[in-house]
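Note to self: the last two entries modelled the partners one at a time, which told us nothing about the interface. This time every component goes in together.
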Amino acid sequence: MLQVLLDAIVLGCSYALMAVGLNMVYGLLRIIHVAHAALYTLGAYVGLYCLLNLSQSLWISLFVGALFSAIVGVLMYRIIYSPALTAPRYVPLIAGAGVFIASQELFRLLAGPYPYSFDAHFQFLSIMTPNLRVTETQMLMITFMVVAFLCLFILINKTNLGLMWRACTQDMELAASSGININLIIAINFMIGSALAGSAGILMALYRNSVFPTMGAMVSYKAFVVIVLGGFGSIPGAAIAGIILAIAESFLGMVPIFNLPREAIAFLVMILVLMFKPKGLFGR
Amino acid sequence: MTFGYILSIATFASIYAILILGLNILTGYTKQVSLGHAAFFAIGAYTQALLITKAGLTFWSALPLTILLSMIIGVVMGLPSLRVSDDFLVLTTIGLNFIVMGITEYFDFFGGAMGIIGITMPTIGGKSIGTTGYFLITLSFLLLTICICYLFSKTWGRLAMEATGEDEDAAQSLGINTSIYKMYAFALSSTFTGLAGVLWAHSIGSVFPRNFSFEMSVLFLSMLVFGGLGTIRGAVFGAFVLYILPEFFRFIENYRMLVYGGMLAMIVILQPNGILGRGGLLDRCILRLVKKKAETQEIS
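The predicted structure of the combined assembly is written out below.
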């Protein structure tokens, strides 16, 4: 039981890392960034490439993967979302869905439809007792998520940049008129969110030991559910809801009546929450 | 390129056109973006398949039942739209797609991953009608759908739906019951989509859960956006062009979804009203041609 809970928490970490990027974009631009999943897969592929061709170190591939995702994330904003900001709300959404589908196909065409294994050797903490096994990868994921969220929390609440970011989420025009460079803030916003998505991709690739073109799809659908549960725009909400969702999926899947695929369960939970609490569980 | 092949392409294109006309009522008029329309499609196809294979009905006796049921389930699935709007609704429709797919895949009643096979072609007077006859049936259903959509687009109902889509609060202040019109839109949309599902199930002869994936929903939406949101001509044009082009260019089959995805993003940013929609690229060309012709006639 404890082991199931632990596995669920590790899975929840990846949901949370994906959802936080989505949530940051939503908080700032009121756009559902469907193409976010592409960055997750991109991170994993770049990380793998780096591991195979450049160096054996996981840390370097993690860094390079996250960096690449961050750059592509900003480019995505500049090319797709920024011309569509003044258009009706469905425009950026459909454009994002288009890019998401296209990116999956691009990965398939470039790297092939078969999964690659992601073998990285690294030293990290691990706990091995008879009742509970926490592998090095699981420990790394949990640590990474805790550190990432702590950094994000400090960045948003204690620094000047965070203050500007919060001003932008409240009112973009007013923030611009008080001298904040909103383009820079949006770019940094996309950069952080995309880097987190990319590193989540690499960590999940390491955990599952596979990289394949559609690996981003399921996680990104889950991330949609997470941002609804956690409340749109709320960053701590995303972290908590990510873990709650993973636990709920793991345990509901054991009940015979709910013997549905995990994504169907997740969306069922999401629709029920939306019907009764349209602002999400932790929304303002 | 045999006659039968062309006939089957035309049949499928007509089926998709019916579906996109249904989607157009929901997404084009009422602006309730649905990224889960494959779920409505699946409900039509599965209901018909079950009625034929399990209840032993024929095409004609099952059709009204299926359409009625599609409409009812469509309204039920539209209920979340009363509580949530915009982005939340899109997520809800994506969710509905996954739930419907999950249910069909994991319950043996719906055939599971093996699907339902053995859906026979409809018969008239005890005689099988063959592909030509089936194409004619599909085509007449398409013409019927176009007629209904055209008549509907001339009514107050369409204006109310468009007002609801543009600005819900403003529409309410004009005395439009936006909830009712959203439900009407879901009912009409799921009726046509269910009809398309029925026709599709019969022409394929089997239904599988993977036929109704999220990718299909994206494809449907891209057909509508490509042709032009909110116009009948755009919906039919989008369905025909995006279905027929890849069929004739089989060599790009491998890149089809890549092209769809990229095109969807480009079209929606550069031509938000679609190629043949109001003010679209082709629309302007045609208007200019018509105007020129009128001028030359005046001169002569």
